[in-house]
Amino acid sequence: MISNFINKISIINYKNIEDKEFVFDNKINCLVGNNGVGKTNILDSIFHLCIGKSYFNLRNDQIINKKNDFMLIEGDFVCNDKNEKIVCSIKRGGKKVLKRNNKAYKKLSGHLGLIPIVLISPYDTDLINDGSLERRKFIDSIISQNNKTYLNQLIDYNKIIQNRNKLLKNSNYNTKSNLEMIDVYDEELIKLSSPIHEIRKSFIDEFEPYFIEKYKQISSEAEYVSISYKSDLHEKSMKELLKDSLKKDFILQYTSSGIHKDDLIFNIDSYSIKKFGSQGQQKSFIIALKLAQFEYLKEKTGSSPILLMDDIFDKLDFNRVKNIVNIVNDTSFGQLFISDTDRDRVEKILNTLNLSSKIFNLWKEHSKRIKWKVWLIIF
After folding, report:
1. If we measure between CA atoms, which residue out of 119, 29, 124 comes closest to residue 346?
2. Closest-CA residue to 189 (of 261, 134, 114)
């Protein structure tokens, strides 16, 4: 199994990190420190280089350090046994520039899929607690890392929905020219919706077994979990949906039916995980989703994604922490990053893993400047 990993990263003016460089172990890297010292931002900078954007969907001006007018991150990767240099830069008020081996991408979407990566974050509970948009983004991000056709179809579909909604907002239902323009948009939506729907349906069929298996491993089979795919297109064609909802759409001023309203239903023991799951169960559910994402991408790409685990052990009992550690203590896993506030817990985890590792100890001095110190531990 081919592994992808990052050897070195240079970070300048990325959020609260003004100027730092890290050289990583190609197996396990642990970032330890109190909240606010920049652990999450370091992981996000790695994610940014792999995907072309922040994990947290921040605007460009939110990424650049408040005291400065630009940001720059550079990473030296090994991807499919080839050296890759990825550079991302933004000037305040300007556009993002992403380069691969000194050549700038014309479209940022062209970079997606080069370096598979999975990030597990405390903020991932939004997948359970927020609206359907978060869950659609989750499945779309996984599929798009391995299917460029799907990504392009999705981009085209969303652009047409935006244009259709703009027309609905600024037009009257009984105007002939408006209805003719709606028909033009609808024809394109009908063409695009069916393949997107079929790919999503096939994805869930493939993905759910990975997820169920990972949850069993984490929970010691204490509960049964499931994912189901909810879509308007299960019952009607896109043509029927658009026709039936046209009058309502003009009243609402947006397109009320279609694949842009798809959702995932998350259950534990046949009940909603959102309503009935404990904090530990919800966190286990999310971690299982992300570990399933790792396995799915590994299977589809033939290489191990980089795995970033950001402060994931809080609110989990000892057995679940132990089970997660046992899952990642596997030769099929490639490079792993772990962030935590508890150095003792990190050292206990490392003692159970028969792999080389580095610990990066981060803390804040009274001057508020962030300092880093590195210990190398080799097992």
Report:
1. 29
2. 261
Assess whether 259 and 340 both reside in one domain.
Answer: no
pLDDT score at 327: 85
The strand order across the sheet containing 357-364 reads: 117-120, 306-310, 336-340, 28-32, 357-364, 370-377
Beta strands 96-100 and 357-364 are: unpaired
Q: Are 18 and 49 in contact (CB under 8 A)?
A: no
Per-residue confidence (pLDDT) for residue 105, from 0 to 100: 95
* pLDDT beneath 70: ranges in the chain: 1, 174, 331, 364-379
Q: Kindly state whether residues 259 and 279 are assigned to the same domain.
A: yes
User: Which CATH number does the domain housing residue 157 bear?
Assistant: 1.20.1050.90
pLDDT for the residue numbered 3: 79
Tell me the residue range of the domain where 135 lies.
131-304
Can you give the pLDDT at residue 1? 67
Structural domain includes residue 217? yes
Q: Are residues 245 and 344 in the same domain?
A: no
**H or E, element range at 134:** helix 132-144
E strand or H helix that includes residue 199: helix 176-219
Mark whether 288 and 146 lie in a shared domain. Answer: yes
- How confident is the prediction for the chain on average, in pLDDT? 90
Place of tokens 């990642």: 328
Residue 267 CA to residue 258 CA, distance in Å, equals 24
> 250 and 137, same structural domain?
yes
